[in-house]
Amino acid sequence: MSSLYLEHFGLSKPPFQITPDLDFFFSGGRRGDILSALLHVAAHDEGIITLVAEVGSGKTLLARLMISRLGAAVCAVYLANPCFSRDEIIAAIGRDLGLTDMGSSIEGKLALLRDELLRRHAAGQRVLLVIDEAHAMPAESLEEVRLLSNLETGQHKLVNIMLFGQPELDGLLAEPRLRQVRDRVIHRFVLPPLQADEASAYIDHRLRAAGWHGARLFGAAALARLVKASEGRARRINLLADKALLAAYAQGARGVEGAHVASAVQELPVDRPAPAAGQHERWRMLATSLALALLMTTAAIAALGWYRSAAPTLTAKTSAPPATTPTAPTPPTVPANPAAIQTPPAIPASTVAPPVIAIASNPVNAAPPVPPAVPVPAPPLSTDLQAVLERTQTWLRRADLDGYTIQLAALPSTTGLDAYLAQVASQADAAQMYAQHSVYKGKTYVSVYLGNFDSHRAAALVIEGLPADLKNNRPLVRTWTKIKQDQKP
Fold this sequence. Notes:
Elements lengths: L5 H4 L21 H14 L3 E5 L6 H10 L5 E6 L6 H11 L9 H17 L3 E6 L7 H10 L11 E6 L2 H6 L5 H4 L2 E6 L5 H14 L10 H11 L3 H17 L7 H10 L12 H36 L69 H12 L7 E8 L5 H11 L5 E8 L2 E11 L2 H9 L11 E4 H6 L4
Parallel strand pairs: 1-4, 1-5, 2-3, 3-4
Antiparallel strand pairs: 6-8, 6-9, 7-8
Helix pairs in contact: 2-3, 4-5, 4-6, 10-11, 10-12, 11-12, 13-16
């Protein structure tokens, strides 16, 4: 953050740093109330607690401030990076509790950890495990944390657990395999974005904590513009306010006006969460599954078309053979646009039963079955921009529209878009590619999407495994419902 303007505005230290600083804690916007509740829970309740907030809302600052205010009767173990395996997370907790040699077996580590927790419990000390960025934890590590919550004496738990994370944490805990973790959550807190008046008070609070003693430094128009652009997220407010102060300093102004904030907004890129490091193997597995699922769907539709055309002939009862040669069943209809069909998960071929065909009670008089025609593969889907746009609008008109997708890019121009779509199609299933025009902050973009997923977690895992060149535009997970509501040009 900039320090060039400190002397110009009479400030003693930078007011809008994005690194957590306990001296700048703002108790408005329910932050103070949630802090009090967390302190109470840490000292009394037993179980798992979750706190959910959008990226840049102040979760880490709140966690660190809570830990700093715990009394000597509570020992806090703080894990800022939760991307540990099952073995590593037990070892990390043990190290924070002073256990230096825990051996190599998971059973041995758990035994040593339990003994240390029992020792601290006997001494009257509670142990609190605080995990930041918990939405990024592997599922097996979360399950290991759940097992820690089982460590107890006859009356009390030996460790309390707090999970701080982005909204993806709710999606992760909603997965069936983590239902035992979810069932142990006794409190769930939500840190909301700051409202307009709260954001204004937040800016003034940080300025005065940095040494400002005058009247409001930000004008009304500047505040309104900043609050709208920041969407109420503390980190975004800090970034924009810092750049606006620098713009005002550069012009020799003694206050921040709307034009200074507008300059900061234009300079600052659209704030999107960066994806985690990829795993190409997961992407290859998903691509194979999608291709197999599409093939099986086409075959199933073909079989169904043959069955519907053949069944009336096979079940008809007549007293004499038909006078004319029976008409062969109509060949199965292969959909011209497989993208309009929601692809089901891949199913092993051995589990797919052939269609059951009703046989007439008088097989002598029934017409002989005609074998189905071999399904003809549908022609490759066009990756032409107009074709993809039309296919997307058809998809968005579905009555049962639901689920998630990956927004690969939001490109400001149609120039080169056909080449980009061809590039995506060369590394993914063209049938799972979508696009539409949208307007964001007065500018028109073409957003390109990939895939259709039942859960946020499934889409996030695919982002991890995307090829490097498809990550250049920082892909993110979105819901189809929100995409349908996007402003159109």
